[in-house]
Design a protein that fits this description.
Blueprint: H1 8-62, E1 65-70, E2 73-77, E3 86-91, E4 94-99, E5 105-106, E6 112-122, E7 125-134, E8 146-154
Antiparallel strand pairs: 1-2, 2-3, 3-4, 4-5, 6-7, 7-8
Length: 157
């Protein structure tokens, strides 16, 4: 007998195999997208942390002395009159810097919220701790990222 075409069993087997392969490909695609979103969140948090810590460290190295260091606020005595005092503060999740009479400048972006900023001064060394959180208004799991950073910087004196 000359058979042309598929039997019902063959068709069901091929259909099952194709469905399985398509399911695996879709899951791989979802995982790749999820990974990309997570990496972008990490990049944004790290970029903000590095830039903020560089700006803060630069101001500390330029300073003559520390006026006050506490949670969310650092005031530095600067050698240049127009930069004196320099104030670094945490305001509504954004790190801001004010040099002398200049306007406050934001040094973190809107994509990141700083939930903790602590300055501790001892013998001209300033310990800086900060917690950066990726801004996630929709509370989607793939965007959730919280990272802590810490460094120590010396005042010039």
């Amino acid at each position: 007998m000359n058979k042309k075409g598929f039997t019902l069993i063959e068709f069901l087997i091929y259909g099952t195999i194709v469905t399985f392969v398509m399911g695996v490909l879709v899951m791989m695609g979802v995982n790749i997208l999820y990974g990309r979103v997570t990496v972008n969140s990490m990049k944004e948090v790290n970029k903000n942390a590095v830039y903020s810590f560089e700006r803060i460290a630069s101001a500390i190295r330029e300073a003559n002395d520390v006026v006050s260091a506490e949670e969310g606020s650092l005031v530095l005595e600067m050698p240049v009159t127009e930069d004196d005092p320099t104030e670094i503060s945490l305001d509504e999740g954004i790190i801001k810097i004010k040099r002398g009479e200049q306007d406050l400048r934001e040094i973190t972006t809107e994509e990141v919220t700083v939930t903790h900023l602590q300055f501790n001064e001892e013998n001209g060394k300033i310990d800086i701790e900060a917690v950066f959180e990726f801004y996630n208004p929709g509370e989607q799991e793939e965007y959730e990222l919280i990272r802590s950073f810490r460094t120590v910087e010396n005042v010039r004196r």
